[in-house]
Amino acid sequence: MSNKAQNNKIIFGLKMRSLRTGRNLSFAELSKHTGMAVSYLNEIEKGKKYPKADKITLLAAALETTSADLTSEEMPKNFAPVADLLQSNFLNELPLDLFGIEMNKVVEIIANAPMRVGAFVSTLVELGRNYALREENFYFAALRSYLELHNNYFEDLEEAVRQFVRQHRVPIGHALPVSYLAGLLGKKYEIEVVEDGLAPYPDLQAIRSVYLPKRRKLLLNGQLNEAQKAFQLGKELGFNALHLSERSNTGSLLRVKTFEEALNHYKAGYFSAALLMHRDGFVKDVEQFLKRDKWDGLFLIHLLEKYQASPELLCQRLTGVLPRFFDLKKIFFLRFVEDLKVGKIEINKELHLDRKHQPHGNGLDEHYCRRWVSLTLLEDLKQGVLTEKGGFLVGVQKSHYHKTSDEYLCFSIARKVGDAKNVSVTIGILIDATAHAKIKFLNDPALSRREVSTTCERCSVVGCAERAVPPSVVLRREQRNRVSEALKKLLE
């Protein structure tokens, strides 16, 4: 069924319901006037049925309107937000099926309380405008929720990788050279990989790769390191092996047209990660890491070298493996990017498994707590602290969140990205009974423990030497409390 046909059903049903209730007609009374069954009328109002012309004539007469008005796409002013939502096609683009939600159920909610739904939709639209949100922001939010719902682990994608490995006899347990991956693309899918293929295009230097479907060529950015090249090639293998046709032709999504496109890019990226860091060997490596008596940051560097992986790829793979194979489900992943030219630090990727955890992104341009190990490493990079082999800095910390019972084991890897940016990625594991049972080095006395908060603006820790700005939100709240207390005393 086309989106237009579905929307016409919804609009017709809403208008019919509005006219029926406006005239205080019950379904039984409308049934008597039209000769239609109550169940059929109910399905019309819920957007499940669209009556034929002769029945529309009967309904229009019973509802004291015309067939033209009843079938037009125009809706009363009080339904304007709902009409805008339907006409935007956004409702049809939402991945409702991934969450087990039927479109008819959504329509039923709208039909049962159109005024309230309209007000709610207006609120969402206004928030979106105020914070400059586009449809793709909702797509990415829906995708993140989907990943969190499945603990970022998908057995069907793992199985697709296992089949691919068996079919092509791909060696596992170590890094796959870029030349080998390029050979797979050429032999299996007749795709030519062009090293430094974007060199003639100055405006495309911020893009990692571009696929030219008509010419069957994958153009790589010459500035990519071997790990980044391998991931792009693995991703292209994923698009083809999984038969994902709805996609962007750039390495990362510049503008998302549909949710399916965002989901397919995630699937291709997951395929690449599972291919480069094959599950069988990687799980054994993680087991070795967790069983160590002492914290060993160099072991993480060893894994990066072994699989020729980026820190982000390693941490993303950990978010799927830790819950599935080690029962460590209460974890989060954060990726910080510091723009050295403007001195701004942002979280541009995050994932929260099992629940929403204390550290999280903030879209209000506030300053993240400088006590986080993630930001400590970024500061160390700026100060020229010596890095490990490969230019990485590794850090670990037990982070106790101020005024909560939450404490996390956080380990981070940071590195420079050119001359203008530094990046750190962090895995946080809630310290509970399961963590103590699974992570042997958790009792290492060398692990530092710090009291942390979310952002400086919202932090009430007294005497913090690392504070970037005053606790403005806390001060405003305290001022409101003083005003409230003074008014209370005055009115007693």
CATH architectural type of the largest domain: 2-Layer Sandwich
N-to-C CA distance: 65 Å
Largest sheet: 6 strands, mixed
- Strand segment tally: 9
Count of all domains? 3
Q: Averaged pLDDT, please?
A: 88
Q: What gross morphology would you assign?
A: globular
C-alpha Rg (nearest Å): 28 Å
The CATH topology of the largest domain? Beta-Lactamase
Question: Numbering strands along the chain, what is their spatial order in the largest sheet?
Answer: 5-4-8-7-6-9
- Helical content (DSSP H or I, runs of 4+): 40-55%
Strand content: 5-15%
In the CATH hierarchy, what is the class of the largest domain? Alpha Beta
Q: Stretches where pLDDT falls below 50 for ≥5 residues? A: none
SSE pattern, N- to C-terminal = HHHHHHHHHHHHEEEHHHHHEEHEEEHEH
**How many alpha or pi helices?**
20
Structural class: alpha+beta
Walk me through the structure.
- With about 500 residues, the protein is of the alpha+beta class.
- The chain has three domains: about 5-135, lambda repressor-like DNA-binding domains (434 Repressor (Amino-terminal Domain), Orthogonal Bundle); about 150-275, Arc Repressor Mutant, subunit A; about 295-310 and about 320-455, 2-Layer Sandwich (Beta-Lactamase).
- It has helices at about 5-20, 25-35, 40-45, 55-60, 65-70, 80-85, 90-95, 105-110, 115-130, 135-150, 155-170, 180-190, 225-240, 260-275, 280-290, 295-305, 310-325, 375-380, 435-440, 470-490, and strands at about 190-195, 210, 215-220, 330-340, 345-350, 390-400, 405-415, 420-430, 450.
- β7 (about 405-415) and β8 (about 420-430) form a beta hairpin.
- The radius of gyration is 28 Å and the shape is globular.
